[in-house]
Amino acid sequence: MRIIAFATKESGWKSPRMGIILSTDGRDIGERLDCEKLFAPAERPTHPLAWFDMDGRWFTIARETAARLERDANALAAAREKGWLVPSRDAYWFAPVPRPGKIVCIGMNYRDHAQEIGLGVPNEPTIFSKFSSCVIAPGEPVVVPIGSEKLDYEAELAVVMGRRVTRVSADRAYEYVLGYTAFNDVTARDFQFGDLQWQRGKSCDTFAPMGQTIVTTDEIPDPHVLRITLTLNGVVMQDSHTSQMMFRVPALIEFITRTITLEPGDVIATGTPAGVGFARKPPVFLKPGDAMEVGIERIGGLGNPIVAGTNG
What we know:
alpha+beta, 6 helices, SH3 type barrels, globular, 19 strands, about 300 residues, Fumarylacetoacetate hydrolase, domain 2
C-alpha cells in the first residue's frame, strides 16, 4: 500500500489529509482514496498523526476499504459515486507526514560514507534530530539560508513508525513500522561545523524534503535491499545500496527506544551513503538554480529545486 498526504482545490490546496493510491494488478488507476471521506466530520481524528496508528480505527478502516476497492470493481464504482475518490491530477501532494511528531536522524550509518570521511565503524548509532517544521513536499524549493555558503544534500531512506513503542528488541522492531519513504537530510555545513552542535545546520526551514509516498512494509519486507541515489542537475552524486547500513533498521529502533519513545508518524532518517558534497574533492555545494533528486528503488523519486533565501 502507498500512502500520501494531499489537498484539493475545495480546501484551498491546504489542510493535508491522508490518501491511499489505488491500483489494480500493480497498476496505478489514477485515483486516490480520500480517507477522510470514509468518516463523518465528527468521527475523524482530532490529531492528524492518528491516521498513522496501525492499531487505530481510522487507519484500519482506510486500509480495509482500499483493499476492497482494489479487488471489487463494483465497490470501486460505488466509492466513485460517493465522492470518496480523487483523481491524481486534482490532488496537491504534501510530504506524506507533513508534520512528524519527531524526526530522529542517524549520522554516519553507511560504510562507504564512513570511509569517504575517514571514520571507522562506530560502536553505537549516532543520533541527532531535525525540527519537524523544516519538512517540505516533493517539488517544493529548498531555500539557501542567509549566511550559508555550504549547503549540502544527503539522500536517505526514512522509516515511518506506525505504533507507539518503548524498549523494543530488534527481533520485534518491524511490528511497529508502518513503512518507508525517501528523505533528503539537507544540511548547511558551515552552520553544522561552526556551531557546537548540529541542530541549526540540520533544521533550517525547508531542510527536510520527504516523499512522495509511504510504501508499507508488506511491499518492502526488507528495507536493506534497495539502491539509493542522488542526482544533482542530472549528474549522479550518490549511488549506493541500503545494504551498506552499519546499523540496520531493527537495531536502530531497538537503540532509539531504549531511551526515546517512538509514536505513530515519527520518522527515522537512517543515514546517507558516500558522495555527499562536502567530502568531494573539490567540494560541491548546492546553489540557487540547482535541482536535486533522491531516488530509492521501489519507493520512487523525491525532487526539489534550490532557491536563494531573502531578508525579511
